Amino acid sequence: MTTFIIRRVATIIPTLVFVSLLIFGLQQLLPGDPAMILAGEERDPTVIAHLRETMHLDQPFPVRYAYWLRGVLHGDLGESLRLQQPVRGLIADKLPVTLELACIAIVIALAIGIPAGVVSAVKRGTVWDYGANVVALWGLSTPNFWLGIMLILLFSVTLGWLPASGYVSPFDDWRANIASMIMPAFVLGNAIAAVLMRHTRSAMLQVLSSDYVRTARAKGVLERDVVLKHALRNALIPIITLGALEFGTLLSGAVLTEQVFTIPGFGKLIVDAVFNRDYAVVQGVVLFTATAYIVLNLLADIAYAIVNPRIRVQ
Amino acid sequence: MVNAFRRCTLIVVCALLPALGAYAQTLRIGLAEDPDVLDPTLARSFVGRIVFASLCDKLFDIDEKLAIVPQLATGYEWSADNKTLTIKLRTDVTFHDGEKLDAAAVKYSLERHKTMAGSNRRGELAPLASVDVVDAATVRLNLTAPFSPLLAQLADRAGMIVSPKAAQAEGDKFGAKPVCAGPFKFVERVAQDRIVLERYANYWNKANVHFDRVVYLPIPDSTVRLANLRSGQLDFIERLGPSDVPQVKSDARLKLTKITEIGYQGITINVGKSDLAQKNPLGRDPRVREAFELALDRDGIVQVANDGEGDPGNQWVAPTNAFYAKGMPIPQRNVARAKELLQQAGVTNPSFTLMTPTTADAQRIAQVVQAMAREAGFDVKIQSTEFATSLDLADKGQFDAYVLAWSGRADPDGNIFSFDACKQPLNYAGYCKPEVDDILNRSRSTRDVAERTKLFGELAAIVLKDRPIIYLYHRHWLWAYVSKLDGLRAIPDGLPRVTGVRFK
Questions:
Q1: What is the largest CA-CA distance in chain A?
Q2: Would the pTM of this model clear 0.90, i.e. be above it?
Q3: Pick from B228, B231, B425: which is nearest to A44 by CB?
Q4: Can you tell me the ipTM of this complex?
Q5: Torsion of CA A40, A41, A42, A48, to 10 degrees
Q6: Which chain B residues are within 8 Å of A47, Cβ to Cβ?
Q7: Is the pLDDT of residue B248 over 90?
Q8: How many beta-carbon contacts under 8 Å exist across A and B?
Q9: Facing residues of B143 across strands?
């Protein structure tokens, strides 16, 4: 097992080097001079020259990469030239916000998607099934930004129940935190719920037509137990995998929702950085995300190996 | 009995009054963007200037009529040769860290603006050679050459005075915790979320400060910004979307203020920036540019591109500005004359590419210009390009025409010099004429308003015929706020001043 882990960890290093080269290289391909955009409206040539020097843009690509890599190896992801704040601090500030948003969104998605999928499969061909499908289709085809604005108009402007945008830390005021998170989380969760519902439905239909379910019914097991204990548990395996994948996507893919609800999260950070050509922030955030994915992948591999000894041997 | 009751009521009311007064009042302002670094020397964004208006006082300010008025200064005097400006300072001003604001602090700040690496103020203060401390309340600014826009520069970020003690201690990190001498002091900033300022108890003009806190919340989406205002989470929003104006007008709880900007929306034409200028009839032949301008209906452009929220214009300043050249009024649309000019130029169907940033208003301008110009025979191809990329292409001269806006400066020099003088950083058109440079330099060396007006008239007569930039209109700054907010002053730079503002 130890050899397996060492071997897997060793493979991470070249992957990370490759990823870092890719991030750095791709960013150089972005059109537009970052110094010029950072210099602001006046675009003073001396300011542009100073920024080029600060960002090492006057150096060749390998030298720039070496500067950046040296910083990364020392735990320094650089500094946002636009905000004059360390990238590490920005990531530390924004990540918990997006994590919280993603967690609540995924809970909402599971709470809507799985029951709807089960009902749809069990009541196949009935009005319940069609109803659930319509809801799923609605969830899939409703743009996040439109739904977000509609919710704001209803719950904030008309009813005045929830804040229209912004974020309050749970450590400052947990009630205000929930109030600020519920709408964006619902918008995100709604789209994922639709995907989960469709997958749950097809997985449940498959399981419900299998032999062991028929046997359970023949033994006289209550229909409720057949559905929830025998069928759903098996159908859940691909759903959980899908849920986990969707969660990963949420971390970097909540950009539009974060923009509409002005949630100062990860997605908004990277989008603003790209448009402002704040290279250090883009590089730092992408590297962090890539590393997180690689590490999570490694942990999953290790978990598989613990569960299934054959993987270790392979 | 009744009298006793009245007396009791009076006592209770009197007892409550101070408590009501002590109730902490916060003004919540919705911004269209997240400001950049909050260091007056390094700052570069328009939105950052909104925060600075509460945080950092300047030597001078501008009023509703664009006149220069003293702020940290009490008065000034120019030398006879216009090369020395002596400024008298207030003696009752302290910075937020308690340090005294005196002539030495002013000298330090101006020199910081001039010498700090990456300073965005260096260009604005280019003619400033040195600063002398005459006495604790007097500074003398020595210039290399007469420079009439200097006062206007000192009424913006170049005139903001920072605490030397804090600036020395923080170095280039000063923007993370700025210490100035404005009505509010810095408390905290959460990037992309909020900037919180708190009333400075020892502010020199504290009688005019009626809020305990000001919180700036960047909310980029204008619909969401308005929703926040309507749901009571904000008290004021800047840059209301023009299409949202009817909604605000119909809401009795809200008020609207419109201000014509000091900047402009225009189309820059490559007349000499690169070889492309000679390859295209638009850049090559002034008659084609005249025909293009005559094909445009500015009123129509304002209606379509900005829902009517703008004033048509044909110069670098709005027609209401004192320096507007009245001899060169807005030309009316004349498609027949445009076709005639094209015929004279020998190009009946000229084709060119109109580059535009991807912002919604710029795109709408491009589309309506394309449709209008088509009627005169122009084939305009729209090239939507992400802003940073479009700037890069413009700087390299890889464009025929470019939809570009300028936020404007209080002195007209700030709207024209860098765009039309030879080899200036914002001269994307590649325009260069010695007589234009000469007039621009002469307008800088005289302080006489009548003389400057005359010079700008001469300038307009040349530049508006050469058309390196075709000016289209001046947007309205649209402010929406709760009705109880009182005392807002409509300053043309579009920056809300919190001093003097209160809840009714």
A1: 84
A2: no
A3: B425
A4: 0.78
A5: 30
A6: 118-120, 122
A7: yes
A8: 144
A9: B128
